[in-house]
Design brief:
InterPro entries: HGPRT (IPR050408), Hxn_phspho_trans (IPR005904), PRTase-like (IPR029057), PRTase_dom (IPR000836). This protein is of the alpha/beta class. It has a single domain, classed as Rossmann fold (3-Layer(aba) Sandwich), CATH 3.40.50.2020. Helix content is about 20%, strand content about 25%. It has three helices and nine strands. The chain has a six-stranded mixed β-sheet, with helices on both faces. Strands 1-9-8 form a three-stranded antiparallel β-sheet. It is globular. Bound molecules: 1-O-pyrophosphono-5-O-phosphono-alpha-D-ribofuranose, manganese (II) ion and magnesium ion. The site of magnesium ion has 2 residues, from loops.
Length: about 180
């Protein structure tokens, strides 16, 4: 793969714009769960950066955990089969759970995880995602909290990678399709 400098990729959302949206989401979640405590469940690896910021933008009591799922050959012929690679460390039965993702794309990852989480009988289950690409959806699933809804463009940064690179880029940038 060709790794062009991130500085050559057009900024879609700046660090400041992301910060403002994450703070707004945190405030909304704090209102919705006033007096409760929350378990945030991040989906490795992409969600790590958003979860770190979101957890600190939520004023109500919260803890976090991570799950990892296998990637299923995106863009190529896909079976849509998702496999759990790393399970929850903490029990979520009776807890208010918010699954945290960097991006909701086809929906296959989150619909698998939602089913899996519901088997643990949480008190409630919601989804927070930094980005939503509604036109890419293959299975019906919607997030409860979304920072930005975007068209079908390849994005990097703020946790999102191209061949594992660019996750540490502070803003969200468009990666040229011809390079991907
Ligand atoms: C990406 C992204 C979501 C998932 C969304 O993860 O972080 O987890 O794909 O796609 P979907 O809605 O089509 O299922 P990826 O598998 O690239 O792993 P990563 O988070 O480690 O980059
Ligand atoms: Mn991911
Ligand atoms: Mg990825």
């Amino acid at each position: 793969p060709t790794f062009i400098p991130a500085s050559q990729c057009e900024v879609l959302f700046s660090e400041q714009e992301i910060h403002a949206r994450v703070q707004a989401l945190g405030a909304e979640i704090s209102r919705d769960y006033a007096g409760e405590s929350i378990v945030l469940v991040g989906v490795l690896k992409g969600a790590a950066i958003f979860l770190a910021d979101l957890a600190r933008a939520i004023a109500v009591d919260n803890t976090f955990d991570f799950v990892a799922v296998s990637s299923y050959g995106k863009g190529k012929t896909s079976t849509g089969a998702v496999k759990l690679i790393k399970d929850l460390d903490v029990p979520i039965e009776g807890k208010h759970v918010i699954v945290v993702e960097d991006i909701l794309d086809t929906g296959l990852t989150l619909s698998y995880l939602r089913k899996m989480m519901l088997q643990h009988k949480p008190a409630s289950l919601k989804i927070a995602t930094c980005l939503d690409k509604p036109e890419r959806r293959l299975v019906p699933i919607e997030a409860d909290y979304v920072c930005f809804s975007i068209p079908n463009r390849f994005v990097i940064g703020y946790g999102m990678d191209f061949a594992e690179k660019y996750r540490n880029v502070v803003d969200i940038r468009l990666f040229p399709e011809e390079m991907a």
